[in-house]
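Working notes for the structural subgroup meeting. M.R. asked for a predicted model of this chain before we commit to crystallization trials. I am recording the input and output together here so anyone reviewing the notebook later can reproduce the run.

Input as submitted:
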Amino acid sequence: MMPAKIAVVIPFFQRESGILDRSLQSIAVQEYPAAAVYVIVVDDGSPVGADDELRKLPPPAGLRIRVIKQPNAGPNEARNAALENLEPDTDLVAFLDSDDEWMGEHLVRAQRTLAMGYSAYFANLFHLGDNTNEFDKARRVRAADHPMIDDDPTLRAYQGDMIHQISTANIIFMPSLVISVAALGAARFPQQHRHGGGDYLYWMDLIEHGAMFAFSTLPEVRCGKGINMWYGSGWGTDGLALRLLDEARFRRRVLTQYAKAAETKRCLRSRLAELQAGMLQDMIYRLRRRKPVNWKVIRTFFGANRPSLFMMSKLFHNLFVSLTGKRN
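Returned structure, recorded in token form:
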């Protein structure tokens, strides 16, 4: 029996040279027939070009690589471009970010599991700098709550409301995801979610297409810094408002389009209120330090997420305290 043909999709936008080579090496050492694997690297207007990287550090022998170039549009559009350019007889798509590395027998385990009738596979992983795997660290999923597959305690069939799981305590990560093209190949990443939420909405689209999820409790990915098209967006950074805007778009869309359970809707509304508070706090922080405020983002955010009267009163109180230093 011929092994399933796997396309590996890598969106590429990097400012440092040499990063892509580590990802490609991790593909090449997978215990999977090389002839049944090919790689699509989508150069998303990267400052360090993918072609230049491949010329400087020749890819592993036997690894077939195609580079697609596009103007910078973000990871969602890059992945969609790859999905539109799959070879006709592709069976599975495996996603990998350009500075992440696969571990163990990721492709073999994914292919074997999906061949049992599942349509989407994901795995445990290590985040950057962690020595504890994600499942043990975050405790968002308990293997014992999900039935074993083929009497293998490290392979589980996800059982439960995946929409609620993703919305409240996500356990799927892009570089560990492998999908069946026949079952889920029509799913696509949303536009306008460059700073967050695009991968979550893609998983919602997989669910809409009838995804049956299976997962590995073994860590099969070691993550790097992340595709650096997502600029630092922590507290006080210039990218925070854009990240909050995109997360609110994601949460609101799930609330109105996908969520069915009352508890899921409650959690989403609570998170949207937290995002409103975060946007207000960021605005106050920037005003107080005389940093520029992206008023267009502020207007767009609150046009779609109207704060309550209570929150508005807190806003004006906090503005008064921040700008005057007076509490009364």
